[in-house]
């Protein structure tokens, strides 16, 4: 089958053929953008939901394919960000899991207390990086500093937080 790019949806002989090619194109975009390629089908399913919910906002039917691919691309980026937040740093999570908290609210309170004891710059960097999921270059642009500086500061901030956990809970 031919590559669509910005092809006209009316060029297809059937609606089924159009939907099939649209699915393939969105899947290709999702696989390209995602760090975890296994999430591509889920992203495309979510894209279909968005297309069905917001289909009335598409003004030009000739733009259906690029619009659908853009939705898939945006959802893939969001999935990458959420995965990044979930898998911050296994060592760091293991250090925090040794805090003795059995419930999530207690862990969140302890984490908040730990962040509160860091200097404001370190706290801000860690929140930007791990809570909000910003990339190092985005943080560097926001703070008007070089990317290497951001990486070094994040590394030092994580080390300080880990050290505080080890000092407070020496058995971990």
From TrEMBL:
Keywords per UniProt: DNA-binding, Sigma factor, Transcription, Transcription regulation
Domain RNA polymerase sigma-70 region, chain residue ranges per copy: 20-84
Name of a matching Pfam family: Sigma70_r2
Alphabetized GO MF terms: DNA binding; sigma factor activity
SUPFAM superfamilies per UniProt: Sigma2 domain of RNA polymerase sigma factors, Sigma3 and sigma4 domains of RNA polymerase sigma factors
Domain RNA polymerase sigma factor 70 region 4 type residue range list: 109-160
Family that this chain belongs to: Belongs to the sigma-70 factor family. ECF subfamily.
Protein name listed in UniProt: Sigma-70 family RNA polymerase sigma factor
UniProt source species: Cohnella pontilimi
């Amino acid at each position: 089958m031919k590559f669509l790019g910005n092809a006209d949806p009316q060029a297809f002989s059937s609606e089924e053929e159009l939907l099939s090619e649209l699915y393939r194109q969105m899947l290709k975009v999702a696989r390209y953008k995602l760090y975890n390629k296994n999430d591509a089908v889920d992203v495309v399913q979510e894209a279909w939901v968005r297309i069905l919910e917001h289909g009335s906002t598409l003004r030009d039917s000739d733009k259906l394919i690029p619009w659908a691919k853009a939705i898939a691309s945006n959802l893939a980026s969001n999935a990458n960000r959420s995965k990044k937040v979930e898998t911050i740093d296994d060592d760091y999570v293991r250090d925090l899991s040794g805090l003795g908290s059995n419930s999530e609210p207690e862990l969140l309170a302890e984490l908040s207390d730990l962040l509160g004891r860091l200097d404001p710059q370190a706290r801000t960097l860690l929140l930007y990086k791990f809570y909000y999921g910003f990339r190092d270059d985005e943080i560097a642009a926001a703070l008007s500093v070089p990317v290497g500086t951001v990486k070094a500061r994040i590394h030092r901030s994580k080390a300080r937080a880990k050290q505080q956990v080890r000092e407070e809970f020496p058995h971990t």
